[in-house]
Design goal:
The structure is a single chain. With 265 residues, the chain is of the alpha/beta class. Helices cover 51% and strands 6% of the residues. The chain has 13 helices and 4 strands. It has helices at residues 3-20, 34-47, 64-77, 87-94, 104-123, 134-139, 160-170, 174-177, 191-195, 199-211, 216-220, 226-238, 253-256; strands spanning 25-29, 52-56, 80-83, 126-128. Strands 3-2-1-4 form a 4-stranded parallel beta sheet, sandwiched between helices. The longest helix has 20 residues, at 104-123.
Length: 265
């Protein structure tokens, strides 16, 4: 990958999209992880540090390391940030409507964070910069209208393994690059552990299926286990709704009003 060229393309995209829509500023959710570090860096280079505002939004189960790395990233870039503890608002809801399924609290946290980001987008007259990568986007490892909601997505066409390389090119601190990717859903949680496959193997399969148009049998000929390949393909197919805008039914107004289509109106 020509990372100099990609950096130029992405920063131009950010600058053009933000300014062409009448804005000068962006807000970025800073998780302390790799993707938000890369996006914050790219936005800062595209717009200048005075036009990028970070938001650190811990939950009570969040790792202290995540907060530490988030602040490190903001300080490294020289961008201003606010810290918003989402615990009170999330627990206020669940104190009345108790969580009955494991994903309810993580999903609520993701959507609460996006709610905060959009509130600050109004406060700062800014667009919300998304931090999704292609690996997680393709398999639906995201919360609809949570972490996959944003005004624009600057790195969503790069696989997670590519994000690691891009981060090194951009000079993201090693302590962030070298730790295991985690959505920080609970103590000790890792993305690869929850997904059940390494990013390296998943990205190889995704590349063959998505970019090269290989069939499952074609992918199997490259030495991958059938169970693994079918699992990844199923996740892609079952999460298609997360990658599409809500469908709008085109109402047949002529039929609705009971007017004969054949008549000359």
């Amino acid at each position: 990958m020509n990372w100099n060229l990609i950096e130029e393309q992405v920063t131009e995209f950010i600058k053009d999209y933000v300014q062409n829509n009448g804005f000068e500023n962006v807000v970025v959710g800073i998780s302390g992880g790799l993707d938000s570090a890369v996006v914050a860096t790219l936005c800062t280079r595209a717009l200048g540090k005075e036009h990028v505002h970070g938001l650190l939004m811990p939950f009570h189960t969040s790792s202290p390391e995540s907060l530490e790395h988030g602040m490190l990233m903001c300080d490294t870039l020289g961008i201003k940030y606010d810290m918003v503890d989402i615990s009170p608002s999330v627990y206020s809801y669940f104190s009345r409507f108790h969580a009955e399924k494991p994903l309810q609290i993580p999903n609520k946290c993701a959507r609460e964070r996006m709610s905060v980001l959009y509130d600050f987008s109004l406060r700062k007259n800014a667009l919300v910069a998304g931090t999704s990568n292609k690996s997680e986007f393709m398999i639906g490892y995201c919360t609809q209208y949570g972490d996959n909601a944003a005004a624009f997505e600057p790195i969503a066409d790069l696989y997670k393994t590519q994000i690691f390389e891009f981060a090194r090119h951009l000079g993201v601190p090693d302590v962030i690059i070298n730790k295991k990717p985690s959505a920080d859903l609970w103590a000790g949680q890792t993305d690869e552990g929850e997904i059940g496959i390494t990013y390296k193997e998943m990205d190889e399969i995704l590349h063959l299926w998505v970019d090269e148009g290989f069939s499952i049998n074609d992918i199997l000929e490259n030495g991958y286990a059938r169970e693994t390949v079918e699992k990844i393909v199923a996740r892609i197919q079952n999460s298609e709704f997360k990658r599409e805008m809500p469908p709008i039914l085109a109402i047949d107004t002529i039929d609705y009003w009971g007017i004969d289509k054949g008549k000359n109106l």
